Amino acid sequence: MKKDFISIKDLTLNEINGIFELTCALKKNKKRFANSLKGLTLALIFQKPSNRTRVSFEVGMYQLGGNSLYLSPQEINLGVRESIADVAKTLSRYVDGIVLRTFEHKNCLDMAVSASVPVINGLTDYSHPCQALADLYTIKEKLKTLKNVTLAYVGDGNNVCNSLIFAAAKTGMNINVATPPGYAPAQEVVQTATGFTGESGSFIKISNDPFAAVKSAQIVYTDVWASMGQEEEIQERKKIFKDFQINAKLLSAADKNCLIMHCLPAHRGEEITDEAMESKNSVVFDQAENRMHAQKAVLIKLLKIRR
Questions:
Q1: pTM for this predicted structure
Q2: What whole-number distance in Å separates Cα of residue 257 and Cα of residue 297?
Q3: 228: left (phi over 0), alpha (psi -120 to 50) or beta
Q4: From CA 222, how far away is CA 265, in angstroms rounded?
Q5: 3-class SS at 254?
Q6: Relative to the CA of 107, which of 28, 237, 269, 273 has its CA 20 to 30 Å away?
Q7: Catalytic residues, which ones?
Q8: Which domains, from first to last, does the chain contain?
Q9: Are the CB atoms for 31 and 86 separated by under 8 Å?
């Protein structure tokens, strides 16, 4: 039976820990897994531009002995040139897995329903589960645990924020989210994630105060103020989000050894300063590297069982 990876909320804690264990093994010994997916092909359907997601999946698949096929927006114009269902059914006859990077989350859900091969969410406007997996792996790698660790997310309550909330609630990590009024994460996300905290023991706090959010936090995390598709809002958002920048003043309220995280791409001078990005506390590029290792683990978990 095929399994998809659409949202962190769909994974059990055992599944997350299993991915982390495999990620660690993959990172330590690349050659050991060189033929894990030999002869298998991964289709990358990207309706949004990408640096890390595309390169990490393509290189990762190559390192596992498989092939990848990039399909641009012009080639696969989902729901316009051809229906999502027809694309999914056709590609399922050719490839062994599909990564979809798109705008509407419903596209990912529809692709998973119609495809007979595993579908991986490479980013939607609702969630970015591959990023959150790599982020939590990075935190665990640095701090050795997620339990009783507090992550402060400062900025826009966007897709990355949603996935971090789900991931924290599943693993027992605490999360403080600080956004300007009107930019909080969706209430449905918070309510669903809160339902997981009874078992994990974590807490979720949503506020409009970045200084309260980072107080005693071990991780301070941010993302761009305007995501892809919101470019026309950037000037307005710069005014609204100006007090939510990760800078020396805000970091002075956090734990002095806090990790500084950003999912990239970063707009330096807007949501984060150069000083913060380049500080000894920054693990931004460790996150970027771990995208590939964590995604390789996901690929093995989903695709290898189909051999």
A1: 0.96
A2: 29
A3: beta
A4: 11
A5: coil
A6: 237
A7: 101, 128, 131, 223, 263, 291
A8: 8-128+291-306 (3.40.50.1370), 131-287 (3.40.50.1370)
A9: no
Neighbour-count burial of 191, counting CB atoms closer than 10 A to its CB (0-12 exposed, 13-18 middle, 19+ buried)? exposed
Q: For 236-261, what is each residue's pLDDT tens digit? A: 999 999 999 999 999 999 999 999 99
DSSP string covering 103-153, please?
S-HHHHHHHHHH-SS-EEEEE-SS--HHHHHHHHHHHHHHHS--TT-EEEE
Cα 293 from Cα 295, distance rounded (Å): 6
Segment 20-41, tens digit of pLDDT = 999 999 999 988 999 999 999 9
Give the pair of three-digit tokens for residue 119: 């579908």
| Residue type, position 89, single letter | K
- The label of the residue with tokens 């460790």 reads 286
